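User: My collaborator sent over this chain with a note saying "see what the structure looks like." That's all I know about it. Can you take a look?
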Amino acid sequence: MPKKGKLAAAGQALRLSEERLRVARKHPPAYELTVEPTREPPGRIPGITAAALEAAGRKRLEGEILRVIEMEQRRIGQDLHDGICQQLAGIELQSQSLAQALEKKARRQAAQAGQIARQLREVIGQTRSLARGLSPFILEARQCVPALKELAARTQKLFRVKCRFQARGPVAISDPAAATHLYRIAQEAVANAIRHGRAGAVMISLDSTGGKTVLAVTDNGTGFAAPARAGGGMGLRAMQYRAAMIGASLRVQTPAAGGTRILCSFQNTPSQPPK
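Assistant: Without extra context I'll predict from the sequence alone. Here is the result:
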């Protein structure tokens, strides 16, 4: 029995990417065909169900999903900058005024008020950094490596975890859109490692060899749960959508030492260096 037939008989869903279906057209469109067995107790499979989605329509849908995500991130970033940051700045000024007023009468309380003002200043800086990370942007082709370095430094400062970036050899991303999507994939992978995997150390690496560029985000956290690995998590889906937009493959691995590794690889044509 062919491999796909064995998978269907075992009760697993099949996805046949961009299969060309026979239709009465000169240039038939490409479809993504999903075939899934129907089950009856006690495990009998009487038949199958199938659903087809035009590949072009799927890509438009993925692009729309990414657009909605960017809009929501922009709204949250704007709220952080214009709302919470401004309120915190006002509280900081009040704390400084209180410290000055107490300086001659109660030095101990003045020192405490000054400490509160300094802590608020640090929180304001962290919040503004978060707001910048949420704001939509388009990276220039040569800005990918510096942006990933900044992401690692900001993550280490904000979340008190070890986060490093390593570029293995000269890496040149020729397409600005690809550079932006790679950065967002790394950003989402790092966020998942900290929020859900409770990682204490994260490594971001970028490697380019023979026209193939590979982004890897490795952590020492608890790893992906089964539903998230199967595509149930919104963060993983967003990364998959972004990878599809640049023709890349996205894989989730569990290293022997534990944790999770997100690998995103695609064919990259290096741009010509400026003369």
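A starting point for your reply to your collaborator: DSSP finds seven helices and eight strands in the chain.
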